[in-house]
């Protein structure tokens, strides 16, 4: 059975500042995670010659993948983080203060709420369809290095979690979720590589 390994990028500079969206590089902790992840992957997938590493087109996932050698890397736009439109680069506090109606609307219906000039979770779920089709087709292991909202949606698909839960699924940094699809269903393991 071929595993799918899901992980968020290492902590980014924007994560440290609490800013959403953006395209910043990794923090020092994020750089350490990238190295730990590469050690883990090289051990875990040692004899898996056909394995591949999928990232988004954003720096923080590409940089997280960069220490990993020996496997092909593929960038998918569909794996980019939810587009927060006019709120891109803001903190949740700033949104609450400057755009209270937007803040409240999202709180009320996080699944359907669409950022002005951006996306909703439902939009993200829809754009992930080709990625899911390709993941299901793979015979070899795949490591997916992506973002919080996108990974919630991907994880929910494989773990068979209901739509309405998706925006609220816990998706911590610096943790690998390994999914194995077998005849008896889906098995899951988690590896927390750092605090
Ligand atoms: O804060 C990190 C981040 O990936 C943001 O870029 C993104 O907007 C957010 O998480 C998605 O999480 P939530 O839907 O809970 O705001």
Automatic annotation (TrEMBL):
Residues that, per the record, bind substrate: 8-15, 60
Domain of life: Eukaryota
Signal peptide: none
Transmembrane segments: none
Protein's name according to its UniProt entry: CBM20 domain-containing protein
Span within the parent record: 558 to 752 of 752
């Amino acid at each position: 059975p071929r595993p799918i390994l899901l992980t968020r990028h290492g902590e980014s500079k924007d994560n440290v500042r609490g800013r959403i969206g953006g395209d910043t590089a990794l923090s020092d902790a994020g750089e350490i995670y990238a190295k730990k992840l590469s050690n883990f992957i090289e051990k875990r997938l040692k004899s898996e010659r056909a394995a591949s590493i999928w990232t988004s087109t954003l720096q923080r996932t590409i940089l997280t993948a960069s220490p990993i050698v020996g496997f092909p890397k593929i960038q998918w736009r569909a794996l980019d983080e939810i587009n927060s439109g006019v709120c891109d680069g803001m903190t949740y506090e700033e949104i609450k203060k400057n755009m209270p109606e937007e803040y409240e609307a999202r709180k009320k219906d996080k699944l359907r709420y669409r950022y002005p000039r951006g996306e909703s979770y439902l939009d993200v779920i829809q754009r992930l369809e080709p990625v899911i089709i390709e993941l299901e087709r793979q015979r070899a292991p795949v490591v997916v290095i992506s973002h919080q909202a996108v990974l919630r949606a991907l994880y929910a698909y494989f773990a068979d979690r209901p739509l309405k839960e998706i925006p609220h699924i816990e998706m911590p940094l610096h943790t690998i979720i390994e999914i194995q699809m077998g005849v008896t269903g889906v098995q899951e393991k988690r590896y927390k590589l750092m605090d």
